[in-house]
Amino acid sequence: MQDFLFYLNLGWEHIISLDALDHQLFVLALIAVYSYSDWKKILILVTAFTIGHSITLALSILDVFRVPSAWVEFLIPLTIVITSLDNILMKNKKQTQMKANYYLALIFGLIHGMGFANTARVMIAKSQNIAVPLLGFNIGLELGQIVIVLGILILLFVLLKIFKVNKKDWILFVSSGVFALALKMTLERLPF
Fold first, then answer.
1. CA 49 to CA 112: how far, in whole Å?
2. How confident is the prediction for the chain on average, in pLDDT?
């Protein structure tokens, strides 16, 4: 149980900590097109991300494949750039975009999962069963994402209902800001 709680906390920190800006920006860009009434769709969306994240993390820990960390650190913000750019370009096609977001979340979760793989590989002993660490980590990650999503949805509710902000303006503002930050990160992390 102690191992489970350790990895649960590690997953929580992986998404909630100040060092996790890239993951937080990705979640923000991913759900920017949704409303607070879409909370079920959003939960499915962040769970798709966690599934992708956990698949790659497991395969990396089992040493099925390795991707150079310089490439992973470059690809993570690139996924955020693509997601936020998709929000900007598809702002008038919400239904199409919402369907595409499920695939983006799963595929980009695969890339984000590689970001923690090297650390996890060192932490989890070769002889140790990876089921408990992976389960704990991914539950912690999912709980952290849910807290971030709740914060964003509360902010969105306040902006739309109390301050009467236009939803399209919200999407454009948030997506543009995330795009700019993620593009800066991507350019700083060029692997060549």
1. 9
2. 90
